[in-house]
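Hi Prof. W.,

I finally got the C4-type zinc ribbon domain-containing protein prediction working! I wasn't sure whether to trim anything, so I left the full sequence exactly as given:
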Amino acid sequence: MPTAPHDHQLRLLAVQDADLRIQQAQHRRATLPVLAQIDELVQLDRGLEEEAVARGTEVNDLRRAVAKAEDDVQSVRDRAERDRARLASSSTSPKDLQALQADLEILERRTSDLEDVELEVMESLESAEAAQAEVVARRENGVKRLRELEHERDVTFRSIDSEIEEAAQERAAAAEGLDAGLVSLYERLREQHGGVGAAALEGGTCMGCHMSLNPADLRTIDTAPAEQIVRCEECGRILVRKERA
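And this is what came out:
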């Protein structure tokens, strides 16, 4: 049967306590609710960034469409202005006057149609710019909230990291000089049993699995030498007998 000085076995409980606190702190660090909130906002920001790009493209296209519509209207107005100037000229023949008057009527209708197009495109642009501004505002608010949550995360991380560092120092002090065979067995069992490789035996109960040992097993444990490493018959963890000296 493996053996280790009883005082080493008692110190192993301090190692186990520190390891458990480190494990719990690491789990708490990895599962902070704020991390899920940050991830959600990061995903939301990516979606808003894509939408903002799409809105920006739409706005730019509509601005070009507005500029073209304005140019088209102005071009027709300029042509109509030239026709009116020719109508006012005394040198224009009656035949040309009749043609110019017909052309002006066509240009007036064309101007009206183009102004309708211009108005429609300008309204579309106004709507697109409002939608773009709304997306930008949403993204800015989201980024602001993201920065707040990241600060909250970092503050909590520092606090937890401090706990881990403190527990790690306590573990190092408790583990210094421990029997190598005892530590090796403990580490193997700790890996197999969710981070708990050693537990105290208190009142006939294993504090690792919280099962009460049967009287026969308790008698065997009680009569075993103090340096003998005993294991829980229920869970297999190292049992540390506190009352043994």
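Residues 94-175 form the longest helix (82 residues). Does that look reasonable to you?

Thanks,
D.
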